[in-house]
Each structure stands twice: as structure tokens, then as C-alpha cells.
Amino acid sequence: MNKSPDASNLDSVFSLSERSKLGEMLRSQEFWIVVAVLIIGAVVGMIAPRFLTSANMANILQNFCFTALMAIGMTPVIMTGGIDISVGSTLGLTGVLLGLFCASGYPFAVVVLFVLLVGTFVGIVNGALVSYLKLPPFIVTLGMMSLVRSQTLVVTNNQVVYDFGKAGDTLLALGSGSFLGVPNVLWAVIVSAVVMQWLLSMTKWGRYVRAIGGNENAARLSGIPVDRVKVSTYALLGAMTGMTAIFLVGWMGAATNALGQGQELQVIAATVIGGANLLGGFGTSFGAVIGSVLIEVIRNALLLAGVNPFWQGTFVGLFILFAVLLERFRSTRA
């Protein structure tokens, strides 16, 4: 029985729609990073069967979350054309302040609020210097990285905090506990990624962020409060870093002045590998999460395969170069 013209047209529309969605998926950087994770997992699983065990998968799920939380916060900063290399030092400062104030007997809720405010304050200072004084974000956050790391050493006096006082049980339960069989920190990543993607995709603030990254001068001329929006992205990253410190210290059971050293490189790498454009204008929170997974899979795979762990930087660097080249290729094709 022959189809009616209307039915044929409808089938054609659906077919075009499906091909369009497939093409969009194949063009997305997130898709290829997922493919890379699966390929690495399959290869390492054959070399080291322990890689695919439930215990190791749980370990990967726990470990990638700390980078992912900050990468989610880094996404809007990079989307505006900025960057923040002080996040590792901010993680260290907020982490040791968390430990010291808990040890001093302050209520846990008060300490958590204080830590989030400290992280936010560092972000606001970075954002204000970049936005209102027009200083290069790399230089500003490089200076802040040194300043904050120095203050971390000052407040700890090079001591490690193990005793968190009355708040210890709550902190450890938050950092290493789970809900419905899922680690608490993974729940934080899921909620943060969904909320951030909603902010970037569905709100005026998200449209402003993309517009600033696309063309800052045009955004100013169109009436967008460029400076305030840029400050808000750095402040949000600072708050996300403070939240990461809470989960990380709770998971480690200690606060050290070495906390967060080198973490800024992993965070930026995860964000860029996940598809954020270093020139601004594009990025997704889900891409940042996927990029964080890839970095942790590489670290874990090298460890289990018996490869020198110093090779991790080589592989991560190659993926960053690949991500930048892929973005350049897409830009020239557009």
C-alpha cells in the first residue's frame, strides 16, 4: 500500500531531524571525549583487569568529582574569555581554614558558610581586578595564586590539621559518605552541573556570558553589564572552589598546606578538553564533567597499567592540544 504524500513528507521531516541530531552529536567535542574514555577503559581493562572492577570504578567516580566541581565553576569564566589559575591555591586556603575553624570548635554550619564566603571573596577580587582595572586575567590570577598560597602557609604554620573537633564526624560523613549508594560529592557534581547548564542555557545571565565571550565590545554597546557579569563568574568559581574544599578535606580526613597544589592545571585542562573555548563564547558544564572523567581515567589507567605516573601530564597535554585543534577546525568550517 502506497503512503500518502502527507505521510511521506512527515517521514522525510523525521528522517532529516534524526540526521541533524546525529550530525550535531558527532560534531560535539563531548561525544568524542566519551569515546576516548571508553576506548581507554577497554584497552586498560585488557591490560589490567583490575581497572574494570566495581571497587576501582567507585574510586574513579569519587576522585574525578573534586576536579569536576571546580571545572564546572571554571566554565563560565573561560566562556567570558577569562581564566583563573589561582583555584588550586584557593582550594588550599579554604581547606585549611575549614580544618582550623572546625578544630577551634565553631559550629559546622558557620564554618561552611565562612569557607564559601572566603572562596567567593577571592573570586570577587580576581574578577574586579580583571573587569574594572582591565588587567590581564592570567597575570591577576597568577599573583593571586602566589598570595593565597603564601597565606595558606602562614595560617597553618606548616602544620597538618587532623583533629576537627566536634564537627569532625559531620565533616567526614559529608566528604566520604554516600546517599542511595552514590557518593555525596558525586551528588554535588550532578546537581551543580545541571544547575550551571540551566544558568548558561536558560537565563539572561547565561546569554550575557556567551555574548561577552563572543564579542565584549559589542556586548558593552548593547547595554550588557559586562563588568558585573565577569565579576560574578569569578565569584561563582570561588564559591565552587570553597565547596570542593569541604568535600575534599572531609574525604581526606586532613587539611594540609599542600592541598590543591597543581590542581589549577587539571581544572583548566578538564574544562578545555570538555569543549570550552579558551577565546570565549562557548562551553558546557557537562563537557567540564566529561573532561574531568577523562583526566581521572588517564591517571588511574596509568597507575594500574604500571606506567610511570609522570606520563599523565603528557597524555593530558596531548588531549588539550587535540581539543584546541578541534575547536580551531570547527571554527574554520563554520
Brief descriptors of the model:
mainly alpha; 2 strands
How does this structure look, described?
This protein is mainly α and 334 residues long. It has one domain: ABC transporter involved in vitamin B12 uptake, BtuC (Orthogonal Bundle). The protein has 14 helices and 2 strands; from the N terminus they run H-H-H-H-H-H-H-E-E-H-H-H-H-H-H-H. A two-stranded antiparallel sheet has the order 1-2. The chain starts with a helix and ends with a helix. The relative contact order is 0.18. One of its GO terms (cellular component) is plasma membrane. GO terms for molecular function: transmembrane transporter activity. It is found in: Cell membrane.
Q: What value does the average pLDDT take?
A: 87
Strand content: under 5%
Q: Count the strands?
A: 2
Total number of domains:
1
Q: Helices and strands, in N-to-C order?
A: HHHHHHHEEHHHHHHH
Q: What's the CATH topology label?
A: ABC transporter involved in vitamin B12 uptake, BtuC
Report the span from N to C terminus.
43 Å
Identify the CATH architecture.
Orthogonal Bundle
Transmembrane segments: 31-48, 60-79, 177-200, 234-255, 267-295, 301-326
GO cellular component, one term: plasma membrane
Main location: membrane
InterPro entries: ABC_transp_permease
What's a concise summary of this model?
This is D-ribose transporter subunit membrane component of ABC superfamily. 76% of the residues lie in helices and 1% in strands.
